[in-house]
C-alpha cells in the first residue's frame, strides 16, 4: 500500500496538502462564528457589521479553497485507482494456470470491478476524511494548547482513551469487509452462470428456479453489506456517545472560566475548538478501521504470491532441435492420480496421436507438455534442459494450440487469426484456405475483414473451429498441440483439415476420437493412456491391430 501511495511522491504530498486546505477554512469559520457571538457582548453596530463583512469574506474564500482542493486531489485519485486496476489485472495474468483455474473467471471480474469500487469508496474517500478531520484535530488541539494548556492536555488524554476503545472494533470491521468481498464474488459467479445457460433454462422452463437462486445470492450479499454498515455505524454511535460526555465536561470547565472574566468570544472559540477535537477524533477512529479493512482488500486483489508466479527463477529459453524426453512422470490433480511412472520421447518433426478412454488424462498430458501444469514428479527434458528451468514465455513463442473450445473476440476474422501480429496478408489468407475458411470468407461482404460478434456468435461451430486452426497454421510453430481439432467439422472438411495438420513442418501432438481412413494412419506414433500408464506404438501397427 505504501508503495502505491508513494509512487507519485510529489503528487501525494499535494494530495495531502489539498486535504488540509479545508482545515484552514473550517478554522476560520469557527473564529468568525465566535466573533459573531462575541459581538453580542461588545454590543456595537459597527463591530457587528465589521464581523459580518469578515464572515462574507471567509465564505467566499472557503468556496475558492474547496475548488482548489478538489482539483488538486482528483487527478491523483484517478491515476492511483488506475494503478490498482493494473496491479489487480497483472496479478491475475501472472498466476499459474493451475492457480487461475481454482476460481471462476467471474470471481476475477468481481475483483476487478466490485473490490476496486469497494477500495475506492472505503479507502480514498475515507482517507480524505481522515486527513481532513485529523488536520482539524491537530490544529484545534494546538490552538487550545496556546489558549489553555491544561484543557489541551485533558483533550489529548480523552483522545487516547477513545483510540483504545476504537481498537476493539478493528478485527470485526476487517472481517466483515472481507465477507462483503467474498459475497460479491459469489454473486458475480451466480449471475454469470445464469446468463451463460439462459438458452437451456428457457428450453427446460426452469427460469424461476434460477431466479430464486439468484435472489438468494442478492439477499445474502445485501445482508452482508447491511451487517458491515450497521457495525461501522455502531462504532460511530459509540464514539459519539463518549464524545458527548467529553463535550459536557468541556462545557462545565469553560463555564468556570467565564466567572474569571474571560471574554465570550474566547470562550465560544475554545468550545468550538474542543468540538473540533472531540467530534473529529470520534469520526477518525472508526475511519481508521475502514482504511485497514480496505488495505486487506487491496492486498487480496493485487499482492502476487511468488510461489504461484509464472516467472519465478526460470532463465533458460525453450530450444527444441532433437527430442523431448519424459521420464518417470507422476501427476495427480485434486488428490486423484492421473499419470504414473510414464516414460516416452517426443522426436522433433514427428506426429503423435494421443488415445485413451474419456478422462484417462490425454488433455492433462498436453497441459504438462505445454508447461500449463508444472507440479509433477519425474522429469520432462527438452534437449537436455529441464522444463522446470525454462521460461514459459519462451515456450509459448514456439507452440500453437487448437482446442475444441475456441477463443474468439469482437474484431475482424483477420485479427482473430493474426492475434494482432504483423503477418503479411497473403500468409493469413493462405492459412485461412488451408483451414477451410475460403468458403466463409467468400460469402462475407467484407471478406477476411468481416467483424465477428462476441465469441464468434455469428459463426457456426465448425467455422469457429476453422479460425482456430488457421490461427495455429499461420504461427508456423515448432510444436502444434491439438485437442479434438476436427470434432466440430463434417467428414469431408475434417479429413481435409487433418491432412493439413499432418502436412505441417512441425511436431504435432494431437487428441482425436475421429478416425479418417487413409489419413489417421499417417501419424508416426500413437501414445495410448491406460490405467495411468502411457504406451507408445507405431501408428500403422496400432491401427492394423485395431482393424483386426
From TrEMBL:
<dbReference type="InterPro" id="IPR003593">
    <property type="entry name" value="AAA+_ATPase"/>
</dbReference>
<dbReference type="GO" id="GO:0005524">
    <property type="term" value="F:ATP binding"/>
</dbReference>
<dbReference type="GO" id="GO:0140359">
    <property type="term" value="F:ABC-type transporter activity"/>
</dbReference>
<keyword id="KW-0472">Membrane</keyword>
<feature type="domain" description="ABC transporter">
    <location>
        <begin position="324"/>
        <end position="548"/>
    </location>
</feature>
<keyword id="KW-0547">Nucleotide-binding</keyword>
<feature type="transmembrane region" description="Helical">
    <location>
        <begin position="238"/>
        <end position="257"/>
    </location>
</feature>
<feature type="transmembrane region" description="Helical">
    <location>
        <begin position="138"/>
        <end position="165"/>
    </location>
</feature>
<dbReference type="GO" id="GO:0016887">
    <property type="term" value="F:ATP hydrolysis activity"/>
</dbReference>
<dbReference type="Pfam" id="PF00664">
    <property type="entry name" value="ABC_membrane"/>
</dbReference>
<dbReference type="InterPro" id="IPR036640">
    <property type="entry name" value="ABC1_TM_sf"/>
</dbReference>
<dbReference type="Pfam" id="PF00005">
    <property type="entry name" value="ABC_tran"/>
</dbReference>
<dbReference type="InterPro" id="IPR017871">
    <property type="entry name" value="ABC_transporter-like_CS"/>
</dbReference>
<dbReference type="InterPro" id="IPR011527">
    <property type="entry name" value="ABC1_TM_dom"/>
</dbReference>
<keyword id="KW-1133">Transmembrane helix</keyword>
<dbReference type="GO" id="GO:0005886">
    <property type="term" value="C:plasma membrane"/>
</dbReference>
<feature type="domain" description="ABC transmembrane type-1">
    <location>
        <begin position="26"/>
        <end position="293"/>
    </location>
</feature>
<keyword id="KW-0067">ATP-binding</keyword>
<protein>
    <submittedName>
        <fullName>ABC transporter ATP-binding protein</fullName>
    </submittedName>
</protein>
<feature type="transmembrane region" description="Helical">
    <location>
        <begin position="48"/>
        <end position="68"/>
    </location>
</feature>
<keyword id="KW-0812">Transmembrane</keyword>
<dbReference type="InterPro" id="IPR027417">
    <property type="entry name" value="P-loop_NTPase"/>
</dbReference>
<dbReference type="InterPro" id="IPR039421">
    <property type="entry name" value="Type_1_exporter"/>
</dbReference>
<feature type="transmembrane region" description="Helical">
    <location>
        <begin position="12"/>
        <end position="36"/>
    </location>
</feature>
<dbReference type="GO" id="GO:0034040">
    <property type="term" value="F:ATPase-coupled lipid transmembrane transporter activity"/>
</dbReference>
<dbReference type="InterPro" id="IPR003439">
    <property type="entry name" value="ABC_transporter-like_ATP-bd"/>
</dbReference>
Amino acid at each position: 500500500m505504501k508503495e502505491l501511495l508513494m509512487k507519485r511522491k510529489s503528487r501525494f504530498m499535494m494530495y495531502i496538502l489539498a486535504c488540509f486546505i479545508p482545515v484552514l477554512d473550517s478554522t476560520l469559520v469557527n473564529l468568525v462564528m465566535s466573533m459573531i457571538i462575541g459581538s453580542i457582548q461588545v454590543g456595537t453596530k459597527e463591530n457587528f457589521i465589521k464581523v459580518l463583512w469578515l464572515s462574507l469574506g471567509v465564505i467566499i474564500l472557503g468556496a475558492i479553497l474547496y475548488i482548489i482542493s478538489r482539483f488538486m486531489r482528483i487527478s491523483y485519485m484517478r491515476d492511483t485507482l488506475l494503478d490498482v486496476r493494473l496491479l489487480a489485472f497483472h496479478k491475475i495474468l501472472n498466476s499459474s494456470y493451475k492457480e487461475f483455474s481454482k476460481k471462476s473467471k467471474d470471481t476475477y471480474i468481481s475483483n476487478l470491478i466490485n473490490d476496486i469500487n469497494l477500495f475506492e469508496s472505503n479507502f480514498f474517500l475515507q482517507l480524505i476524511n481522515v486527513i481532513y478531520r485529523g488536520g482539524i484535530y491537530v490544529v484545534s488541539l494546538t490552538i487550545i494548547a496556546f489558549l489553555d494548556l491544561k484543557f489541551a492536555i485533558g483533550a489529548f488524554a480523552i483522545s487516547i482513551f477513545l483510540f483504545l476503545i476504537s481498537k476493539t472494533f478493528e478485527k470485526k470491521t476487517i472481517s466483515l469487509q472481507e465477507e462483503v468481498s467474498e459475497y460479491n464474488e459469489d454473486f458475480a459467479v451466480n449471475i454469470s452462470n445464469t446468463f451463460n445457460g439462459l438458452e437451456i433454462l428457457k428450453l427446460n422452463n426452469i427460469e424461476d428456479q434460477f431466479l430464486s437462486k439468484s435472489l438468494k445470492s442478492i439477499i445474502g450479499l445485501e445482508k452482508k453489506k447491511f451487517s458491515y454498515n450497521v457495525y461501522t455505524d455502531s462504532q460511530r454511535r459509540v464514539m459519539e456517545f463518549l464524545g458527548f460526555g467529553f463535550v459536557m465536561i468541556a462545557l462545565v470547565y469553560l463555564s468556570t472560566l467565564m466567572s474569571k472574566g474571560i471574554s465570550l468570544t474566547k470562550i465560544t472559540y475554545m468550545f468550538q475548538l474542543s468540538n473540533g477535537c472531540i467530534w473529529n477524533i470520534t469520526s477518525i477512529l472508526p475511519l481508521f478501521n475502514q482504511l485497514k479493512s480496505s488495505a486487506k482488500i487491496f492486498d487480496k486483489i493485487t499482492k502476487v504470491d511468488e510461489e504461484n508466479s509464472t516467472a519465478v527463477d526460470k532463465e533458460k529459453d525453450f530450444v527444441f532441435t532433437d527430442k523431448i524426453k519424459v521420464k518417470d512422470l507422476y501427476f495427480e490433480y485434486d488428490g486423484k492420480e492421473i499419470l504414473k511412472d510414464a516414460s516416452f520421447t517426443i522426436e522433433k518433426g514427428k506426429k503423435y496421436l494421443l488415445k485413451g478412454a474419456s478422462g484417462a488424462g490425454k488433455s492433462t498430458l498436453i497441459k504438462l507438455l505445454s508447461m500449463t501444469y508444472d507440479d509433477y514428479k519425474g522429469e520432462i527434458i527438452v534437449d537436455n534442459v529441464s522444463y522446470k528451468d525454462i521460461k514459459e514465455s519462451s515456450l509459448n513463442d514456439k507452440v500453437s494450440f487448437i482446442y475444441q473450445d475456441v477463443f474468439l473476440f469482437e474484431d475482424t476474422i483477420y485479427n482473430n487469426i493474426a492475434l494482432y501480429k504483423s503477418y503479411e496478408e497473403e500468409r493469413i489468407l493462405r492459412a485461412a484456405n488451408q483451414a477451410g475458411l475460403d468458403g466463409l470468407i467468400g460469402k462475407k461482404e467484407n471478406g477476411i475483414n468481416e467483424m465477428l460478434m462476441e465469441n464468434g456468435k455469428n459463426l457456426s461451430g465448425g467455422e469457429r473451429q476453422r479460425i482456430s486452426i488457421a490461427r495455429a497454421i499461420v504461427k508456423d510453430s515448432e510444436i502444434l498441440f491439438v485437442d479434438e481439432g476436427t470434432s466440430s467439422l463434417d467428414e469431408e472438411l475434417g479429413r481435409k483439415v487433418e491432412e493439413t495438420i499432418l502436412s505441417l513442418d512441425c511436431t504435432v501432438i494431437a487428441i482425436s476420437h475421429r478416425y479418417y481412413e487413409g489419413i489417421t494412419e499417417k501419424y508416426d506414433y500413437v501414445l495410448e493412456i491406460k490405467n495411468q500408464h502411457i504406451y507408445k506404438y507405431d501408428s500403422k501397427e496400432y491401427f492394423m491391430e485395431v482393424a483386426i
